[in-house]
Write a structure and sequence with these properties.
Number of helices: 11
Radius of gyration: 20 Å
Number of domains: 1
Distance between the termini: 51 Å
Shape: globular
Number of strands: 2
Length: about 290
């Protein structure tokens, strides 16, 4: 089922709005105590990877991407890129101006990115491992966003070098980086779940993000086209009763297009679990009183 551009726009706007309650809470309290920096880092890395791979397929890579983009590119493709871009920028706003100054020096990010990874680091307790978080995220930028921006901004293009650079980037990210990032997004729940002040997360923000990103995840299954090649055409599906083929199909789907739906779905589930934790803690405190 096709997804309409107006729905893409609404989901991008809703994604942006979903971060506002948490940002307002951190600014009003002038503290991000109770929000795990590891939780924020892993979610920011997930958003960064989605942006980097999306930028690679839609902007810098022009061959064999019929499953991810239209040829020629249309408005829907650019709206698809806008979705992870907005989420990435909002996560950066949630983590720290100190981090963003480093990122600015390393990858010359725009002025907009100076603003949510920023807030959590800026208002984090003095005992928080800020330098380690900055170093880890800066390292990830060097293998994700920096390569695609260098490729995009480079005035000199060698077709042979571009081909091999594209092969390496695509292979490394689809086979190794994406699965690790997805595992990290799941692990983010662990780091925030056992935080003593889980109630530091905005309840309104958790509600909105759980709903919005669940819808975003579902929308990605319709935004992208995926069909395994076979024989003379592309209309090959798993034969009935073949469990192994289904597993192979799902693996290929995840590697090429499914990571977007899976990563957004994981984030929605994590936020829903933390919402349960938030309400459970509140209920226990009220019951105890």
């Amino acid at each position: 089922m096709p997804i309409y551009n107006w729905l893409r726009i609404i989901l991008s706007i809703a994604s942006l709005i979903s971060f506002i309650p948490q940002i307002q809470g951190i600014i009003s309290k002038r503290s991000s105590a109770g929000i795990s920096l590891a939780y924020m880092l892993l979610n920011t890395i997930s958003a960064t990877e989605q942006f980097a791979v999306g930028f690679y397929f839609i902007v810098t890579h022009n061959d064999d991407t019929d499953f991810f983009v239209s040829e020629p590119r249309n408005f829907g493709d650019w709206l698809n890129l806008a979705q992870p871009t907005i989420v990435w920028l909002m996560f950066l706003i949630l983590q720290d101006s100190q981090l963003l100054l480093v990122c600015l020096l390393l990858s010359k990010l725009s002025v907009l990115t100076r603003t949510s990874f920023a807030l959590c680091l800026w208002y984090a307790p003095s005992t928080a491992p800020k330098k380690r978080i900055v170093a880890l995220y800066s390292s990830f930028l060097l293998i994700s966003v920096v390569p695609v921006l260098i490729d995009f901004l480079s005035p000199f293009k060698d077709p042979d070098e571009d081909f091999w650079a594209n092969v390496v980037f695509s292979f490394v990210h689809t086979q190794y980086v994406n699965p690790l990032v997805t595992c990290g997004a799941i692990a983010a729940l662990y780091f925030q779940w056992y935080n003593a002040a889980a109630a530091a997360l905005s309840q309104d923000g958790l509600v909105v993000q759980a709903v919005v990103f669940a819808i975003v995840a579902l929308s990605w299954t319709a935004r992208l086209r995926f069909q395994l090649e076979g024989g003379e055409g592309h209309e090959v599906g798993p034969p009935p009763g073949s469990g192994l083929w289904v597993v192979m199909w799902l693996r290929a789907w995840y590697e090429f297009v499914g990571w977007a739906a899976v990563d957004n779905g994981v984030f929605a589930l994590v936020q829903a679990a933390l919402l349960y934790r938030r309400r459970h803690e509140t209920g226990v405190k009220l019951g105890g009183e």
